[in-house]
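Quick question: who can interpret this fold?

. . .
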Amino acid sequence: MTRKQYEKWAILREKGKRHFVYFHGVLMWGIVTGIMWSVAMSYYSPSEHIYIRPIIALILFPISGYFGSKWTWNRNEQKYDAYESENE
């Protein structure tokens, strides 16, 4: 972890794990990516059941965003702690 990454993570971690998981994982990654994927798939691979893909995407993408952001949080906390111990 670089000094810049350390400083950025220090700001993000002040808001807490719950905020990080729900805002960055579920909302920003899960819902936004689910909508973009649904729009792209309806353009590249049209289907008669136009509402099925968005419903599935708005369920699966936020779930994966939830678990992915929990993993990201834990990994960045490890890097943060390692950086702090190296620079004491």
Notes: Residues 3-86 form one domain. The chain has three helices and no strands. The radius of gyration is 17 Å. Residues 30 and 72 are 14 Å apart (CA to CA).
